[in-house]
Design a protein that fits this description.
Maf protein, 5-stranded mixed beta sheet, about 160 residues, about 40% helix
Length: about 160
């Protein structure tokens, strides 16, 4: 993450996050880096559908595709980018090691990640199958994948 923070600073770009199943882990990893306040605008943990919607996620997207969908992750990433006026917005949604009685559709242990690049008006998306029994290990795996994707985005000319 140190390299990502350096790249963001060098390019004068900012980042914000809207996390569900990772519970703020990505924001924590970002803010563990000295100087991250220069590039990190905002982090939202929207564990419930209600608060995803309050933050600006279109409820029709959740209704049509479910909260556990790439469409919702994309909506989360773009919404947080717009809300915080950040160049990059990261949206994360999925199920870690348990079924959700309120949202019975979609596969368990599958996480949808979207990174919205406001400057290019484009999304980078990825599905991650988590297999660890530990929620914390799954969160680490997810954030490692996001770091890889952020590096590719920031190194893209």
């Amino acid at each position: 993450m140190e390299e990502i923070i350096k790249l963001l600073k060098k390019q004068k770009k900012t980042i914000s996050t809207m996390e569900s199943c990772t519970g703020g882990y990505l924001a924590n990893v970002i803010t563990n880096i000295e100087g991250a306040s220069e590039v990190f605008q905002f982090g939202a943990v929207t564990y419930s559908n209600e608060f995803k919607i309050k933050m600006g996620v279109n409820p029709d997207i959740i209704q049509k595709y479910t909260v556990y969908s790439m469409e919702t992750a994309m909506e989360m990433s773009k919404t947080i980018s717009k809300f915080s006026h950040s160049n990059l917005g990261v949206g994360i949604t999925g199920k870690l090691n348990r079924a959700d009685s309120y949202n019975k559709t979609k596969e368990n242990n599958l996480v949808d990640i979207s990174i919205y690049n406001k400057d290019r008006d484009e999304f980078v998306t990825k599905k991650i199958k988590v297999t660890n029994l530990s929620r914390s290990k799954n969160k680490e795996l997810i954030v490692k994948e996001i770091i890889k994707e952020l590096k590719l985005i920031l190194e893209k000319k």
